[in-house]
Amino acid sequence: MSATYAITYSRTHTATFVSDNIRNVLRDIVRESGLDPAKLMDDWQTLGKAAKTWLESGHLYEVVIEFFIPGSSVASARWDIPINYDGSGDDNDMWYSKEHLLRTIAKATKPPANALYRIILRVRPGAVHVDGMGDTELKSVNGLVSRNAGTAIATPDIMAGLRYWRAA
């Protein structure tokens, strides 16, 4: 029974750590893009609950932030945070690299000053419903190419990477 407790505690603990730091990554991307992160922070109560729930269950596979001009079906910039459930296995390995994130942001395309942004949590089939969350379609990435930028968040059992999209 104690082994089950240890696994449950570990996943709950790491899901909270990863969820909190995904919020930090998103906030820094928005802020460094010259936009106001207030909407993200206001929405994080719902988004954070969903992210933590789906990280604990293993259903969250990607977090996306899209920047777009109102009325457009095409993203002007985009970031993906792919989730991997094969962490390091080392109980002392929990980190978030803000320095790496800031260096990566400096390489990425900045959205236009009049852009809006939205956060999409992408889940595998079978994920439990979380109030306030629903289905949506991603905006087109026509004219953009993606660049992988390594790992941003690491824990013993969950890793979160970085991928940004920039003009082709």
Written description of the protein model:
Strand 1 (60-68) and strand 2 (77-84) form a beta hairpin. It contains three helices and six strands. Helix 1 (2-32) packs antiparallel against helix 2 (38-57) and helix 1 runs parallel beside helix 3. It has one domain: Cell Cycle, Spindle Assembly Checkpoint Protein, Chain A. The protein has a six-stranded antiparallel sheet. Helices cover 36% and strands 28% of the residues. By secondary structure, it is α+β, with helices and mostly antiparallel strands. It is globular, with a radius of gyration of 16 Å.
Could you give a quick summary of the protein structure above?
The protein has 168 residues and is an alpha+beta fold.
Tag the structure with descriptive keywords:
single chain, 168 residues, alpha+beta, Cell Cycle, Spindle Assembly Checkpoint Protein, Chain A, 3 helices, 6 strands, globular
